[in-house]
């Protein structure tokens, strides 16, 4: 009886602590089989859980508040970054326009440019690719006119990014798509010999020619 009186505060203390684990209680019960009457004084397991629920909900609410706050902060950061990116893009385009003048021509969203490089079809493709661009392909009269300006300045004939290498008389761009705009000179294309490439003359007209010839290389950006 004396032992039980001495141990009572211990068991009561243990039962009142939420951090006491079920495993700990099982061990204590194993040590003192008769102490079950004391342990039963502790709140039943279900009662403990019920009392704990409001605290968990409160914590969950705090967690959600933090998450929402973090989400809003990230949203604001993304918007700021998007604005900075848009400004940077506009700045780059403007810089290109300045740097290209008077060596390039801007038409719509396209820029046609040459650095005076000359070469055949393979060299021309490689040269433009080296600058992160492709051979010029006029898609309409305005673009054709823009390229013609450059051709006239250089008083040369320029290579276009158009061929009928894959299928005779089927002229495609560098992506393999059949061209929808053309400005052939009278009698062209006539595929004399082996003419699978296209050149532009100073008058803006197109001629199919041998791809091994030497042309002014104009790239588009
Ligand atoms: Ca041909
Ligand atoms: Ca021809």
**Which residue ranges are poorly predicted, with pLDDT under 50 across at least 5 consecutive positions?**
1-21, 35-43
Bound molecules: calcium ion
- Residues in helix, %: 40-55%
Radius of gyration: 40 Å
Name of the CATH architecture of the largest domain: Roll
Question: Strands of the largest sheet, in order across it?
Answer: 3-8-5-6-7
Largest sheet: 5 strands, mixed
What is the overall shape?
elongated
SS summary, helix count: 6
State mean pLDDT (0 to 100 scale).
80
How many E strands? 9
CATH class of the largest domain: Alpha Beta
The structural class is alpha+beta
The H-level CATH homologous superfamily of the largest domain, spelled out, is Mannose-Binding Protein A, subunit A
Total domain modules: 2
**How far apart are the termini?**
96 Å
CATH topology of the largest domain: Mannose-Binding Protein A, Chain A
* H/E series: HHHHEEEHEHEEEEE
Report the portion of residues in β strands: 5-15%
Keywords: Coiled coil, Disulfide bond, Hydroxylation, Lectin, Secreted, Signal
Subcellular location: Secreted
Signal peptide: 1-16
Coiled coil: 71-98
């Amino acid at each position: 009886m004396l032992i039980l009186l001495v141990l009572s505060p211990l068991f009561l203390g243990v039962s009142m602590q939420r951090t006491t684990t079920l495993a700990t209680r099982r061990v204590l019960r194993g040590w003192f089989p008769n102490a079950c009457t004391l342990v039963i004084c502790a709140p039943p397991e279900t009662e403990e859980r019920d009392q704990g629920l409001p605290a968990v909900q409160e914590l969950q609410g705090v967690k959600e508040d933090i998450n929402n706050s973090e989400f809003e902060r990230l949203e604001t950061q993304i918007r700021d970054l998007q604005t900075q990116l848009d400004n940077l893009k506009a700045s780059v385009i403007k810089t290109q326009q300045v740097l290209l003048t008077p060596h390039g021509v801007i038409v719509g969203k396209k820029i046609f440019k040459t650095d005076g490089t000359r070469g055949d079809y393979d060299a021309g493709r490689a040269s433009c690719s080296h600058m992160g661009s492709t051979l010029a392909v006029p898609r309409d009269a305005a673009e054709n006119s823009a390229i013609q300006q450059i051709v006239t300045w250089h008083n040369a004939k320029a290579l276009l990014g158009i061929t009928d290498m894959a299928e005779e008389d089927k002229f495609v761009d560098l992506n393999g798509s059949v061209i929808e705009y053309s400005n052939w000179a009278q009698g062209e294309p006539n595929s004399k010999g082996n003419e699978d490439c296209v050149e532009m003359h100073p008058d803006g007209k197109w001629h199919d020619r041998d791809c091994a010839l030497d042309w002014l290389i104009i790239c588009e950006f």
